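Long-time lurker. I teach an intro course on protein structure, and each term I like to show students one example going from raw sequence to a predicted 3D structure in token notation. This year I'd like something fresh instead of my usual example. Would anyone be willing to generate the tokens for the chain below so I can use it in lecture? Attribution to the forum is fine with me.
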Amino acid sequence: MNIGGDIRRQAYVPKENADPAAYVVVTLIVGTADDRPLLSDPIYSTEDLRTALQRLGSISPNYLLVYELLWSPQDATDSLSRDQLLTAYPNLTQI
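-- Reply from a regular --
Happy to contribute to a lecture. Here you go:
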């Protein structure tokens, strides 16, 4: 996990017969010149996600102030197990 620039790593020892680690959490933060939310509806499906990404992709460069793409875990060779995902992100909606 990366918290305030402090990267925390912990050894993961999978349980016998456990599902393989296969999850990555991606967070996209977008700031624009408007103070209204870009997305008003929650994302519950792949179609909702596709619609939201198309909306974000239509933002003109003059209107876009900042964006940041974050993912966890940050190591390119690492991923989260289902248990780790649910523990670290209990309120996450899986799609």
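Some talking points for your students: The CA atoms of residues 43 and 71 lie 18 Å apart. The beta strands are 2-3, 6-7, 25-32, 64-72.
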